[in-house]
Amino acid sequence: MAFAQLAHVPAPEPGSGPWSANLRRDKGELVLAGHALSDLADAGTPVYLVDEEDMKARARAWVDAMGDGDVYYAGKSFLTPAVASWMLEAGLCIDTASEGELRIALAGGVPGNRIGLHGNSKSDATLRLALEAGIGRIVVDSPGEVDQIAALAAELGTVAPCFVRVTTGVHAGGHEFIATAHEDQKFGLSLATGAAMDVVAAITASPHLEFLGLHSHIGSQILDAEGFAAAARAVMAFAGELSSRGISVPEVDLGGGYGIQYTGLDPKPLSEKDMIAGIRSAIEASCQEAGIPAPRLSIEPGRSISGPAGMTLYRVGATKDVMTDDGVRRYVSVDGGMSDNVRPALYGADYTALLGRDSEAELVPTRVVGMHCESGDIVVKDVALPADVTRGDLILVAATGAYGRSMASNYNMVRRPGVLAVSDTGTAWLVKPETWEDVLGLFPDL
Ligand SMILES: Cc1ncc(COP(=O)(O)O)c(C=O)c1O
Ligand SMILES: N[C@@H](CCCC[NH3+])C(=O)O
């Protein structure tokens, strides 16, 4: 059977689709912010590359679109002290979801009052650190947290600033595991059952807690404003109910989940400006209906800032042609895989890739796969790559900046790759590549 019978779509060229703004071709070779991929690969492969100016510009675009209101960069998507300081400089706050993320934001020089803390299972130690740092907001996620946080605030002689995370029943975005506002899951407090109402009432009754607002996060990889608008309507209806009980809601945080293009086939997401305009008009209409003033708005984009700015550079190892029911597929194995990007295995996520060098060869249906002992270890499920791809070639995978390094593992005892920031002025490690000493040093008997 022939190659051509399988669906195969080439990656878009630089300057379009999922690629970051400063990727180009120069005499056929891919070049990021003036640095040839073949030079960047001297740092070792696989390596995550971050187009520094692109990431900063994406952060600024959200701040500009937001105007009056706060943009919290979701650190879970990719956080380092330097990244935290870039975000601060661009006018953002930082959303953290663990003690580690909180520590990194603080290490990056972010003042406590510009940090938010999430988590469905916050430890006393994490909450104590947050309160001692003068955290801007703690997002309460379960009824038991009210007493837990109040006791710690009392012990520290402070008042804890609290948001309440509600589940609106709105479910938007991609995979089931990344949709988080339907009822039967672990996050947030239900509007429907009254759990959210009880927690808000308990917070307002405590002298050690201050109720600052409501939080909603409806899912991930959402490309238009409708899901956020529906969530905003549900949250504002609840704010109306609270208002009739004498409780005002100064701020509403609609969370993250703003989608990106991973392949050339993905639709373009709404611009930051159109997304915010859509959300604000839903909030204003609901507030008019409920007869309450519009609250301050905040959001928590992660992927839409870090995702498209990041790429992964792999080196090709073995290649083979495999007969499928529909034709021949070329398997191109690279020197990383599910340990540096678990999203294809976890969510069936699609990515796309380009060969680093020029080639005149015909394009053939290709699957880029990792080096791990799992058949689900896929890097790019379907892409058209030149037929002459061979051992030693470089392959660049687009839009891996979010949830790539932050979800990386040492599966099969690999060393987790470093993250290199690349700009016109040079390169710098944001995260160092792990060494054999780092990995083997974990074992006391070695
Ligand atoms: C509460 C909360 N905020 C923000 C985000 C960031 O989401 P994304 O990176 O899709 O924008 C997430 C992750 O899904 C989240 O759970
Ligand atoms: N890790 C997820 C997003 C977070 C899901 C829940 N907050 C992804 O890669 O898409």
Features:
nine-stranded mixed sheet; 2 domains; Lyase, Ornithine Decarboxylase, Chain A, domain 1; 21 strands; binds pyridoxal-5'-phosphate; 12 helices; alpha/beta; 446 residues; binds lysine; eight-stranded parallel beta barrel; TIM Barrel
Q: How would you describe what is shown here?
A:
Helix content is 27%, strand content 25%. It has 446 residues and is α/β, with parallel strands linked by helices. The chain has two domains: 3-50 and 308-440, Beta Barrel (Lyase, Ornithine Decarboxylase, Chain A, domain 1); 67-306, Alanine racemase (TIM Barrel). The strands form three sheets. Strands 4, 14, 15, 16, 17, 18, 19, 20 and 21 form a nine-stranded mixed β-sheet that branches. Strands 5-6-7-8-9-11-12-13 form an eight-stranded parallel barrel, surrounded by seven helices. The chain starts with 22 loop residues before the first strand and ends in a 6-residue tail after the last helix. The relative contact order is 0.17. The model has no long low-confidence stretch (mean pLDDT 95). Bound molecules: pyridoxal-5'-phosphate and lysine.
